[in-house]
Amino acid sequence: MSKTVSVYDIEGKSVGKVELPKLFDTPxxxxxxxxxxVALQSHMFQPQGRDPMAGKRNTAKSIGVGHGMARVxxxxxxxxxxxxxxxxxxxxxxxxxxxxxxxxxxxxxxINRKEMKLAMVSAxxxxxxxxxxxxxxxxxxxxxxxxxxxSDDLExxxxxxxxxxWLRNLGVWEDIERASVRKHRAGRGSMRGRxxxxxxxxxxxxxxxxxAEKAFGNFSGVKVVNAASLNVNDLAPGTHPGRLxxxxxxxxxxxxxxxxxxxx
Length: 264
Fold this sequence. Notes:
By secondary structure, the protein is of the alpha/beta class. Helix content is about 30%, strand content about 10%.
């Protein structure tokens, strides 16, 4: 028997029930989700290479042994500073790299289509588990049914103050504040050379973008995506399943039809 959850309006009140696709009953495979996310992220890398002649455009040549000096290739000449200066070798100034990166290296990871689809469905099912959502660090209300499904009026919100009011009524504004505070703390304590950590909060899945991406885009960690372009990286950022996800009724139908399920 299919599971049903409540549908919430802009005021945060339940206005009915909706039947979830059977996709939400799929067991959560964290190992498969991790593989799929890493594979998607590897496609964003840009191949890098070096000029094969980099560090070699000089007259440096070793004079060999028996001279009481290191056998480092040296530039020909008698005048300072170039004369007798080491070059070409990897340990010299402006010398070549020992093992330079090549653009022909395969840096994109591959994953089977069936595995990718199963990872997507598994990450989808994780959005209905309160335990997994809390394990990610999200702050969610205990009196709500998950996954959070709202009416299609959400897609028509174009003002940030309306979006904030709606998030407060739904009970997820505390998680938005958590992401905002974490962002500021990371900014004050950041160090040069350290990767930046971007806070992750609610994910809003809509059928069509009608302005909601502008209204909710001002909040830290909030992302609005179309149901047709939803991927496993959106549902499980950082390879960790259980992101706080809010669905519109129409988006739920689109995802159910796209991945082989059925929605009421």
